[in-house]
Write the structure tokens for this entry.
Amino acid sequence: MSEEFIIERKLLLDGEGSGEDQRLNVFVKQLAIWAKSSKSPTECEAGYNSMLAQLNRLELYKKRMNLRMRCYKRQLKTYRAMHDNYRAKKELVLKDIEKQEKFLGEAKIIKKYRIDRNLIVKTVNEGQSCRQLTEEVHNLKKDISNLEDEKEHLQSQLKNRVQQFRLLSVTANILKMSLQNNSSL
């Protein structure tokens, strides 16, 4: 027999390495001892009861192992379902994060525009309204018109005064000459 054959057989008999092989070997040895023994019926009865107890323990152990395996399989199935559920939730959360990042980018742009708008509104509110500016322009035009009229009036007065001064100067010169002529006479 090769080593591989022995290992395969041992694994096949031992199952999951839980000592089942040893229990079976002990049971087989007890059975062989009981079958070969030539003891009294009461001692045979005790050996028989011992083997039955060992057999019951083996069956109970096998049932427990089967129950554990079913429980493990159920837990594994539950954990896989939970894992799939968490994976789906993770994908949803990642998609939601992407949407929120887009919303955040849009919110930043909106905030920037809102700040710009508020600055413009503040500047406009600090300045005068169109109606006030129109009134001010109209008043300034009136003032300019009044000042032009006053300028024309003052220029005409100046012209009159210059003419009067020339007339006075010419008259004074004529008087002076006539006085000089009179005094020379």
The chain has a mean pLDDT of 85. DSSP finds four helices and no strands in the chain. The longest helix spans residues 41-126.
